[in-house]
Write a structure and sequence with these properties.
single chain; alpha/beta; five-stranded mixed β-sheet; globular; binds adenosine-5'-diphosphate; ATP binding; ATP-binding
Length: 475
């Protein structure tokens, strides 16, 4: 009994540590907007890099022709072809082929990696080409989604700042990514040209905008997390005299590295960070994304096991880092059976913990809930932070339409769409519901109806092909 009380104590402490009251979320919203300002004011002015993309126009549905894209940025590598029919028919056909990256290439040389990419592309193009496709003299154009931090030189070129996500190819750092691909394609005799180099959030934004012109931001919540949005060029103070036709530019926030003292942080987060390969880095991502949520839950359960015997005395598998993946906590969280059969199965199969009593299984579900709810609500606050920065959260006088006299008119409030992509938002129902709910809660019932969160799929690749179309030299 005393031991059970200790376990309940661990849960209580977790709940308090993970508190995301509306007041606290508003502080996170403000902090996000402030950091965005700081990151735009000067290079290194914030933990948010706020990288320029040189993408100043987004596809709008008028694009025509056949375009390709490559998407490199995680465990899978994708090759994409889209056929666009212009205003009426829009995306006539698209094809996405996924292929895992052979692990040895992730730590090889840039030449080996890009030879593999060019070969995959060449085979795809051959398979996909039929005579009716393209006049032979027409050069094929390609969008390249490369989801690692890049210092862009133009919309179609940029230099790799550093590798992440398990890639480490030293000779690539500081090199022009498009040039590496271009060289490999020339070697293969492949007549294609890179006309857009973007990261995955920008691809998602492009596809979102193609479908719905009110789309102004995109968020990825998968293994990692990041966001981008359309900023006014005159607000990008660190780059004076930036001129674009549209007066705007997409900014890649690299928001996974956001940090604020208002974020509700627990001892589990501190330990996870300290034991990670990149301590003090990607603080927001470590509280939100799929790579980490399972491991936060594992750490709480381990603590409970240490305080008591609820998981029996052989709970050693709980001390194995990353043994509990996020899809498993989603499965336990979604378990609707009265006796929590799925929870029981996962505890047995993954953690080798047998015969856990029902009330302890309920506790496990509760831990998943607390950790996931915090993640979803913090992501929601981040999104509203972006809306606040661009005057779409209903709080700033001129853009929201709230009259100066303090009246409640929202007649000038514009419809605003945020495209969201990634395994967590797409597949983890409770995460998605908590996120939607928190965005509405922070905005309030008057403004919330103007803001649409739209789930997107394969945007990172298809969006890059659309950007190739809108940046095509034949336009
Ligand atoms: P990536 O971010 O690796 O490019 P995804 O956007 O598909 O790819 O995200 C994959 C991540 O999403 C996984 O690492 C996992 O953490 C999370 N995920 C996938 N499926 C689920 C699920 N059913 N429930 C919860 N999380 C999931």
């Amino acid at each position: 009994r005393r031991k059970w009380n200790r376990v309940v104590g661990v849960l209580k402490e977790l709940e308090e540590g993970c508190s995301t009251s509306i007041g606290r979320l508003r502080q996170v919203v403000d902090a996000m907007a402030v950091e965005m300002h700081a990151g735009l004011a000067s290079e290194g002015g914030s933990k948010l890099k706020m990288l320029l993309t040189y993408i100043d126009s987004l596809p709008d549905g008028n694009e025509k022709g056949t375009y390709y894209a490559l998407d490199l940025g995680g465990t899978n590598f994708r090759v994409v072809k889209v056929q666009l029919g212009g205003k009426r028919s829009r995306i006539v056909r698209h094809k996405v082929e996924r292929q895992p990256i052979p692990p040895h290439l992730m730590t090889s040389t840039s030449e080996e990696l890009f030879d593999f990419i060019a070969l995959t592309l060449e085979q795809f193009v051959e398979r996909e080409t039929n005579s009716s496709d393209l006049p032979l003299d027409k050069k094929r154009e390609l969008g390249f989604t490369f989801s690692f931090p890049v210092r862009q030189l133009s919309a179609s070129s940029g230099i790799l700042i550093k590798w992440t996500k398990g890639f480490l190819i030293e000779d690539m750092i500081g090199k022009d990514v498009s040039e590496c691909l271009q060289q490999a394609m020339i070697k293969k005799g492949l007549d294609m040209r890179v006309v857009a180099l973007v990261n995955d959030t920008v691809g998602t934004l492009a596809l979102g905008h193609y479908h719905d012109a009110d789309t102004v931001a995109a968020v990825i919540i998968g293994t990692g997390t990041n966001a981008c949005y359309v900023e006014r060029t005159d607000a990008i103070i660190k780059c004076q005299g930036l001129l674009t036709n549209s007066g705007g530019m997409v900014v890649n926030m690299e928001w996974g590295n956001f940090w604020s003292s208002h974020l509700p942080r627990t001892s589990y987060d501190i330990d996870l960070d300290a034991e990670s390969p990149n301590p003090y880095d990607q603080g927001f991502e470590k509280m939100i994304s799929g790579m980490y949520l399972g491991d936060i839950v594992r750490r709480v359960l381990l603590r409970m096991a240490q305080e008591s015997d609820i998981f029996g005395d052989v709970a050693s598998s709980l001390s194995v880092p990353f043994i509990l993946r996020t899809p498993l906590i989603a499965a336990m969280h979604d378990d609707n059976s009265p006796d929590l059969r799925e929870v029981d199965r996962i505890l047995k199969d993954t953690l080798q913990i047998q015969e856990v009593p029902l009330k302890a299984r309920m506790l496990v579900v509760r831990v998943c809930d607390v950790v996931t709810r915090r993640a979803a609500r913090l992501a929601a606050a981040g999104i509203v932070g972006i809306l606040k920065k661009i005057g779409r959260d209903g709080s700033s006088g001129s853009t929201s339409g709230r009259s100066k006299s303090g009246g409640e008119s929202t007649n000038k409030m514009r419809r605003t769409v945020v495209a969201i992509e990634g395994g967590l938002f797409a597949s983890y129902t409770m995460f998605r519901e908590y996120l939607n709910e928190a965005v509405a809660e922070i905005l309030g019932e008057e403004i919330a109806p103007y803001v649409v969160l739209r789930a997107s799929e394969d945007g990172s690749g298809i969006g890059a092909a659309l950007l190739a179309a809108s940046h095509s030299s034949s336009n």
